[in-house]
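Ticket #292: bound-state structure for NAP.
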Amino acid sequence: MTAILLDGAAIARQVYSQLEQRVAALNNQGVRPGLAAVEVGGNPASLVYIRNKVRACAAAGLHSEVHEFTADCPESVLLAALDKLNRNPLVHGIIVQLPLPRGLEAGRIVQSIAIEKDVDGFGWRNLGALIAGHPLFVPGTPLGVMTMLDHAGIAIEGRNAVVVGRSTVVGKPMALLLIARGATVTVCNSKTVDLGDFTRRADILVVAAGRAGLVTGDMVKPGAVVIDVGINRRADGKLVGDVAFESVRAKASYLTPVPGGVGPMTVAMLIANTVSAAERSIAATRPASATR
Ligand code: NAP
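RESOLUTION: The complex was predicted; output attached.
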């Protein structure tokens, strides 16, 4: 078997084209959706990610602004900047690019983003609402994975799903979304004994560990759907995922490439969340009589 590659860039283009009408409708009401990105410490990878998001905003007709701070910036300055963005009506979505430099507590800083502007969905109130099944915003990477599965018509209900990785931004919300759709979900982590014993049971295998080549073909059930979230830079500069591409491609039915798989979907979901935030902001300011 040779897996069908799930082309995240192509699916993302469809997402953007579906957003066009919604952005135009907002423009007709005098609203341009706006995203503010906060970057601290000038981490080169973070700057690349932010540049991609700014480009995606421009292409989709969104306003974007980047607020950069030095690594020694006191937490109080960051919190004050976020408070100002929370109150800025031109900004509908706010993200804090992670990781933050040592000494800054990401949890506390991300929690200060207003829930209705938390378009990364990393705030505890959004994550808690995800557990309850009513999130305002779902984190972009797992939401992008679900969108790719649906786009390919892959059944989720009743399937065995294994998620490798239990981070707050990928693994845990990924597991919650799969549970909500009726999959039987196992979540593995770095302490899991005999990872292959679990991954071989997966009809849908999502790997988000940040370890190049962690999952090899012998760890995959024939015909499984394999989603490679990992992004690792090899010594030669090449970007690779967590999955040994060739050996897994020979076993799986579907596989996401790296790059060009989950990455473009993550950005597209962030843009979609920002458009939703702008739509909600209008609904929130509309007089009660106008909503009847
Ligand atoms: P993270 O916070 O470092 O979490 C990694 C998770 O993988 C942890 O739960 C860790 O277990 C687990 N893990 C590590 N080694 C393992 C092993 N040998 N066996 C089983 N589990 C193992 O990373 P993250 O933020 O979730 O990101 C994961 C990867 O996805 C990274 O490569 C990141 O760059 C990539 N990523 C890609 C996108 C995208 O858009 N494509 C978006 C976000 C992240 P413990 O909890 O026990 O340490």
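RESOLUTION NOTES: Residues 141, 164-167, 169-171, 188-192, 195, 208-211, 214, 229-232, 262-263, 266 surround NAP (CB under 6 Å).
TICKET STATUS: resolved
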